[in-house]
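Problem 3 from the worked examples.
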Amino acid sequence: MRKFLERLFEHLPLQFRILCRQFLLRVVDLEALSIEADIPRFLGQFAGVLIMISIVNFISASMFLLSMTWRIEQYLIATMMLVAGLIVVVSWDATFPDRRDVMVLSPLPVAPRTILFAKVAALCAVLSIAILALNVATGVICPLLLGSQHSSILGFFQSFAAYWFTMVAASAFLFCSVLTVQGFTALLLPRRLFLGLSAILQLAAFGLFLGVYFLQGTITTPAAMATPENQRLLACSPSFWFFALLNQLNGSLPPALAWLAQRAWTGLGLSVFGAATSLILCYLRTMKKTVEEPDLVPGAEGLHWTPRFGSSLQTAIVLFSFRSLTRSRQHRVVLAFYFSVVFAIALALLRYVLSPVTLRPLTPDFIIPTILMMSFAVIGLRSVFPLPISLTANWVLRIAQLCPSQKYIAATRRSQLLFAVLPVWLVSACLSLSFRPWHQVAEHLAVLALLGLVFAELSLIGFYKVPFICSYLPGKSNIQVAFWGLVVVLLVLTVAFAPFEQRALSDPFLYVGLFIVLSAAACGLWAFNRHRAKSAVLYFEELPEEIITTLKLN
């Protein structure tokens, strides 16, 4: 199969092959990477994460078999659409020509359609890898569940084809829908206004995809789907459309739900047509606009006031971090992923808070989500800090390091507390207003603040650089191990800690002991980081460790 694909690729035009390879590697922003970056290994690690998710889904589906077929189908389709949506949003501007593409390729004898086809092919290749990786195991068990509804062996092949076509169609629908919105927005608006609105649309898409995934739920019986109160949800949710399409292709769809499958066909056709039309028009009309119109809007004149966050150095780094997060596309994308998880958890808590019961005791159902929100926010901001805003401008910061390294690291700590710990703590405080008694709510908020301090200090261990001014080295860490280790350890520790905290809220002596332990941990980690920072040397370029190979002649 691999040799066949290589031979097929070799028969394509040379310009298309070269551009397709380059655009495929540029799914990750090359200007943020170290010169020693291993991009294929980086993409392979993400594919490995999706394969592990597929294996977990395979084990879960095998345990339930026929008892929860509809629930499993809806879950797998929703997960596939979420992954496809996140990939498209992460590569938000990768399909459209940017200033670098126009300046480099315009003088060359390369037709705009070749650039268009190469960009679309590169993004489709990434999306295809995600589809295959996420369904490598479930693409067998789910057709078995569907094929059991047929009496012949041909039923399995029909179910197999129905499953894979539905996964590809659902991903293509979301992919083309996002491209349609982007394309027509770029056509109708001036470029400067489009760039500003594009950032808002990107963050909104992140929140929409994750919020729908976590809050939508499943409908597992034909009777529940036929009830009037669920009709609006079914009509507005594309995941239910493609669930109906899967069962229609499999021949197991109840006649009362045929209208849902029809919506899937209609939505798929409209999205593909809209994406093709918008892309063609963009490449015909916006190539010149990309060069002629500036990307940055001149600053408004008048009095400008900025708050102070300590010393002049701390204020400068905090403001630099804030402006990098709000103005840089790649930083917004990475941070939006983690904060969208926080947003989804907050929405789930809000739905729980707004239930008919007005006052309720503090339980692990509230303690666990608030701790997860705090940890995801700190981890998300810490994962964004190593990404540079402009490597070509790092020389200014290198020659301007007039203060000891510990002051720079202290400013980084302040940014972590202001942009991750404080917002989550304020959201948790607002969500806790419907819980009683008040003293337990205040005690939990105090514990949550201490946990935020502990998480912030843990994230700063070994981080001897200023945020956003050091190159990134993908492939240096094992993403699969880090991802699954984080998920497992974080969930296990949080689930184990929440009942203990609930007991401590009812026992003053136990709570005092917990408060003292967390305070000592926060202070100890702060002292450790401060001591290490005194002898730390700031670095600006991520390089792999040198490996000395000997001949072992002795």
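Problem 4, a separate protein:
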Amino acid sequence: MRIGLKVVGAALLLAASGEITAAEAASSAPVVSHPSTSALSPRLSDLPTAHWVHTPDGLKLTPRPKPLLPHGAGPSGPHVDDKALQSEPGAEVGIQPKASFGGIGANGYIPPDPNIAVGKNNPQGIGYIVQMVNSELAIFDKSGNLVAGPVSLSTLWQPLGGLCAGSNAGDPVVQYDVAADRWLVSQLGSTNGPSYSECIAVSQSSDPRGAYNLYSYSFGGNLNDYPKFGVWPTATNSAYLASYNLFSNGQTFIGAALCAYDRSAMISGAVNPAQICFTVSGDGGFLPADLDGATPPSDGTPGYFLNYEATSSLRLYEMGQFDFANGLATLTQVTPDIPVASFGEACGGDGTCIAQPNSQKLDSLGDRLMYRLAFRVFSDHAAMVVNHSVTAGTSVGVRWYELRQQPIGSIFSLYQQGTFAPDSAYRWMGSAAMDGAGNIAVGYSKSSGSIYPSIAFTSRTPAMSAGTMSPETVLQPGSGAQTTYSRWGDYTALRIDPSDDTTFWYTNEYYGRNSQFLNYLWSTAIGSFRVGGGGGGSTDFGLSVSPSSLSVTRGGSSATTVVSATAINGSSSVTLSINGLPKGTTASFSPNPITASATSTLTIKANRTAPHGVFTPTITGSNGSVSHNPNPPLVLTIN
């Protein structure tokens, strides 16, 4: 939630999950509802430009009490036994900076909740970035030119009337649906009872400056706090996934609502798209899976929802078999929970401990996973990446995870994890994503007693040791500290450009100066970069093998697999080799070398003298400047 000019709507904290496991239970049957109202918006570009009409000395905060979830003692001090801790940066990976520019600035609300979505380039080569903060939306091109807005969010929903048209209640989220070439915009309908709702807008075209299909969904007397959305575009059961933390009468925590909206109906402009929700009692802080890349989940794949269930495990739910016409779906808890390295919640979960160069400490929101749960399909596996803030010695670091489903359709498990805390600075409010070559980046806020809150990121390539990140890059240094109020964020967004599947775009907040009104004078930045480009735009590539497991019988039989090179920062010639084959086996690539992006067929034969067993020969690709191995590696079984 946001803090308005005269009312504070502080986002609500989640309980320490490990203390409420016994009380958790998912509702056996979904609750099906339809929009209380629907309408069509004017063209967004025709809406009036929003202006901050209040002077700084006219801003007065009168915070209302912040509802809290039950929270036990929990971890609150230094957590020195983090088995995933990375206390110094790894190898350089070659970062190629791209466009960087300022986003929406202070508009009378705090915290700003900055987030973005990035669209495909149109035939004219123009691509759009939609940024949302609490109360406003703006549209930029990828060079940083403002092409529409900023507009007040309430003006977009004016045709709906009611709460959506008047409250600007906050927690905005914007999504780009790459499969449909459409945009989804959402925010809370109200933070004050007796009734609560969610406002959703879906663009009628690929141009975010155009008209939107508008919907308002009622949550009755339950505040649907901290909504997060994901795009799930399967062929016949597609949905927009959403998660909420529910508070009865805006005060008493109930649990999580895990929801699916009829994506196809919303895209077509139907007046009555169904919403299907399950309640998970006593638990919260879930994120819905959100697709990156051009390959959708296979038809029938359930949507995923993840939270951390204790300070040593993640909990995953699957929602599927959507039948929006008849109001049917299933929700299944995946068992067992996914074990991870034990951690301490940053700031004890519900405390304020982030240091700045002043006396005001900031809240880490260390009690939840941080937006997004980024999902991607590769040739032989699916992956999800996510992050949250954890105690790292006497400060705070970013804990990140890569979960894998290998083979596709199997159960997700932990593939790698790391806590990035290379020095004593505080790192929090992160957002993680993975590009088409398997490179991972995490953007976050960085601060200390001598460093003003700044915008930074770290990254890794598949060739690096598991669980490690490269030295961080500062996208935007801060020049001021926040005073008086502790909330920061409440979330940020790291995105992948769908036009090349290699460019990361990140937005976050910072302060450009110190002043007596600094609580309100925040700024945002939008920056982009590529990972693994060898600095200065050098060509690079990613390498994969599918299938990654081969079985061959002795005596002259053969087996084949496909090696793929994915170009980064321009095409290059990649020479392939293989080492570590057992005696009595031979291998050949056809063709070799290949041009990234291209594929080569690897054929392996075993004669009668080859040994029985399982082997892991090493495939290497080199373009003369850099070399890579596929991850996962090839596993060869000789029978």
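Solution to problem 4. The radius of gyration is 24 Å. The domain at 540-638 is CATH 2.60.40.2310 (Immunoglobulin-like).
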